[in-house]
User: Fold this.
Amino acid sequence: MYNFEYQNPVKIIFGKGEIAKVGANIPAGSKVLITYGGGSIFKNGVYDQVKASIKGFDVVEFGGIEPNPHYETLMKAVELVKKEKITFLLSVGGGSVIDGTKFIAAAACYKNGDPWDILSKRALVEDAIPHGTVLTLPATGSEMNSGAVITRVETTEKLSFMSPKVLPLFSVLDPETIFSLPDKQIANGIVDAFVHVIEQYLTFPVNAPIQDRFAESILKTLIEEGPKVLANKTDYDAAANFMWSATMALNGLIGAGVPQDWATHMIGHELTAYHGIDHARTLAIVLPGVMHINRNQKKDKILQLGERVWGVLDGTDDERINETIKRTVEFFESVGIQTKLPDYSVPTETIDTICSRFEKRRYKLGEKANIGPEEIRLILENRL
Ligand code: NZQ
Ligand code: ZN
Assistant:
């Protein structure tokens, strides 16, 4: 196992009815900005629960944060934060609202020039406005991690940053909030969380059985509970298990002390930037190719995934690897997510554009930094 430091101070408040505790967890005397997306919180009663909980606070609101949150929109919120002298941010929504709010928190305190540098140059975030979250879509793990992914429409860039300064103070996870999710978003959440685990698990062995078995337990829970949620959205127990799986998939625990991949995410972000394909769907398109192209370097872990998660025990190593990739693809398709780029009407020029973008960036992806423009082309053209 590699050396590691792990600290996760996010307070998780989990369960039905727990949104009532939001107010008690915001520092007294705060001036609060509630951030939200396109309005789902007004239809499912989450907004009313939040407002009831924070009675007595001085509250301002900022809505309209898009899926794949736009830098251009978030900078308007930064202006509002400064004008209103906001001291606490409360994000109510999915990963996009939470990520966007992390950026608002950092950008409002950024004093070294253009806040876009936080994303484009990974400029240090020295300070951020404290924030809490009310999660309404299990998927990203943003509610318990230090990362955020932001899109700049003007330049078709989708970039990420990480900083311990933007870790939420608390996150409320009420599984009942997901009763109103469209099937499409539930499927996205299942696949995004699944691929988060894979990015931290499917590399090469470093003798870290705790991380491996935690990772496998999350994958198996998603495989068992995800379809139950799709079959019956108001199955509280299934919703609770799905929600906790997605948080555990990307709160740093299973990734501590082990190699990590993230090639699938990096390539996927480009498909979202150019074509607006939902984040999770881009992962379902890219992951099978990443598994194929790195089948030798990932061999031990693909065989372990096959055996322990999919029950693939028979055949030669090559046959078992193929079967494991096939089962993974079938799982994505079984929850309603297509896995081939042509299913999404992406023109071939996009592949050229993405490859030349990675050419310019001059870094390679994956746990052994061996996925460059040529490999990305093979993956996207499905020629493996
Ligand atoms: O905007 P509203 O009206 O709230 O509707 C949203 C949105 O249209 C809707 N929704 C959310 N909760 C709902 C609901 N509809 C009904 N009932 C509810 N309870 O769902 C739609 C999608 O929401 P969004 O927040 O965009 O989805 P998700 O949580 O999947 O977040 C995706 C974003 O997170 C980033 C992705 O790149 C993408 O930008 N990621 C963030 C990560 C992180 N911070 O660690 C890691 C991930 O890999 C990912 O990259
Ligand atoms: Zn993801």
